[in-house]
Amino acid sequence: MAVTSTSPAPSTLLSIPGEKREHRTMTSQRLVIIAGKVLFGVLALLIVVWSVGPFLWMAITSIKPDRDLATLPPILPTAVTFDHYRTLFEGRPFYRYIINSTIVASVTTIICLLIGSLAGYAFGRLKFPGRLPLLLTVLVVSMFPQIAIVAPIYVRFQQLGLLNTYQAMIVPYNTFALPLAIWVLTSFFRSIPGELEDASRIDGSTRLGALFRVILPLSAPGLFTTAILVFIAAWNEFLFALTLTSSIDHQTIPVGIALLPAMYHVPWGNIAAASTIVTLPLVVMVLICQRWIVRGIVAGALKG
Q1: Which residues contact 247 (CB under 8 A, 6 or more apart)?
Q2: Residue 260 lies in a domain
Q3: C-alpha distances in angstroms, 40 versus 35, 45, 62, 78, 294?
Q4: What's the rounded mean pLDDT across residues 237-264?
Q5: CATH number of the CATH domain containing 110
Q6: Rounded Cα gap, residues 85 and 88, in angstroms
Q7: What DSSP element (H or E) covers 250?
Q8: 53, 204, 268, 302: least surrounded by Cβ within 10 Å?
């Protein structure tokens, strides 16, 4: 009776170790990918905690009773109270600071957008001698430290009778915010295809007509990003507002918060409540409009 051999063919014996090696390679690649995702997630979580943690603790402090504010080590509130918020609007007219900051920041933003759009269009779309040196000069203006020029500005505004006015803050704010607006809008205007403007010019539009009918509508993300950045910078500015104003009728929110501490007592709960009121609208605005902000920042770096 013949015996049939059941041993695998030589080709089969050679292919099995190769498949195992390939399987081990794919498994190691998956492990590397998973480890990379986990590491990225941990780093992202640490960044979020580092960034959001202080704001959350400030918001928690604003609803703590006074007895919990001086506890060491710090603890979570044993009870929730909104007395600090009521004190801000009952004991002092904190709403006046909010109105002043809104007026100053809004007017500064509008002026920066108007002048920045015209200057950004000139730098980004027109060719004239000395364009790059002039653009660099605009940037250099924003590099001067505020503390170095606040004294001469104070003396000059005192001579002009502009102290304790909105103009006293709006003029310096525009001086430092305009370079940022011009640079952002210049890079954004450069990314818009020139053919669109040429088509508008062929149809009979002037340069200003092409700017307002073609360039600006296409530059909405860039304009929105610039407006947000300028508004936040003006909203949070402290040095000029403190130096150039001495009356609550024109002082802004940062000055109002700085004036909350008394000689022998620091009302941490009131300060935390005021800081939360000031910060929360900006946070909400940025979260809602983050898609526009990212588009505005990224689009300026891409050539259309």
Answers
A1: 164
A2: yes
A3: 8, 9, 33, 36, 21
A4: 87
A5: 1.10.3720.10
A6: 5
A7: none
A8: 204
In this structure, the answer to whether residues 49 and 131 fall within a common structural domain is: no
| Per-residue pLDDT reduced to its tens digit, 59-103 | 888 888 888 887 778 778 778 888 888 888 876 678 889 999 999
Domain extent, residue 249, equals 87-299
- How many domains does the chain fold into? 2
193-197, 206-210, 295-299: least confident range: 295-299
Whether 35 is in a domain gets the answer yes
Nearest-angstrom CA–CA distance, 275 and 258: 10
User: CA–CA separation, 219 vs 63, rounded Å?
Assistant: 42
The residue written with tokens 């990224």 in the block is 298
- Give the integer Cα–Cα distance in Å for 124 and 131: 9
How confident is the model at residue 48, as a pLDDT?
84
End-to-end CA distance of the chain: give it in Å, rounded: 83
Q: Are 119 and 131 in contact (CB under 8 A)?
A: no
How far apart are alpha carbons 192 and 219 in whole angstroms? 8
Give residue 219's Cα distance to chain centre.
18
What is the DSSP annotation of 105-146? HHHHHHHHHHHHHHHHHHHHH---TTHHHHHHHHHHHTTS-H
Give the SS3 label for residue 97. helix
The reply to whether 173 falls in a domain is yes
Report which of 172, 166, 167 is spatially closest to residue 153, judged by C-alpha positions. 172
- Is 53 in the same domain as 188? no
Per-residue tokens: 19? 């498949």
User: Contact, 116 vs 181, CB < 8 A?
Assistant: yes
Residues 102 and 205 in one domain: yes
